[in-house]
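ok so I'm stuck.
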Amino acid sequence: MNVSYKKLWKLLIDKDMKKKDLREAAGISTSSRQQYYGVCLL
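replied:
not stuck anymore, here's the structure
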């Protein structure tokens, strides 16, 4: 199943947010994010 994040990135740009701002707003720790990206890259 393919997942596209294009709409999310567009929304972040429209709101002048960075990935860091999204992480902080969602209450996700840096280590959790790194684990997620590690799984997505496999």
